Amino acid sequence: MAYQWTSPSTLDVVLADARRVTVIRPPSFSRFSFLKSLLELSHYRDLLYTLTVHRIRVRYKQSILGIAWAILQPLSMMIVFTLVFSLIARVPSGDVPYALFAYVALLPWNCFSGAVSNATGSLVSHSQLITKVYFPREILPITYVFAALFDFLIATSVLAALIVYYRVPLTPKALYAIPLMAIISVLALSFSLLLSATQVRFRDIGMAMPLLLQLWMFATPILYPLSAVPERFRFFYMLNPLVSLTEAFRQAVLYAATPDFGSMAWTTLIAFALLTVSYVYFKRVEETMADTI
Fold it and tell me: Would you list the domain boundaries of the chain?
């Protein structure tokens, strides 16, 4: 048998080819693939719809009260806050009863906090799905935002009942609540993408969320009017984007006031800028998400 001599360098190349491993993962994200990622997300709209419906059904599955829980949560919070801040602390609420004053601000806040709180753990809680099949991972936190909006719509029935009971007149300016909720939803989605992607590597985020949201609620004019904030702190207080949105929502529904369009335009710009940054960060983390989760 004849043997052919092979140089060490050639032998190394042959062995390297035999051990070559192909890694299948989403393409590396760059600014040129931003629109491509959005287009890909639109191709998975059926999955987005299916998971959103599944999210809502699972939440109330095997529950005696069912969808009524979407009403009981903000209603019970309103009752407790009314007893504490109206009867004991006597926080001023203007010309409207405190129960209505608090509930109309609790609605957008509960939508925001519920979406962010549940979406933060969406990737970690679905780790088995992420490691077995590829789909745009941002679908998972998005479904929690849509589910929170569904709960918001259900809870508005109590707001309508309170408005009728207290005989508060509604004007066409109450329709400003629709674009205001759209901006709040964009903010909720921004923080959901940012925090859910971060929690894949740092599980402390999920532990800190209840405390952070509780502090955030007290830093937003929900239980007290904006006028109660001292002028010397007003500038730093207004850095919270939910301050202007929550106050504008209350003013439009209860006081027939037109929102400050300059402030709303600035808040909208911040919301979409934050959404862009959060989405870019999410897609970068997505490349190695299945390995680190």
Answer: 38-292
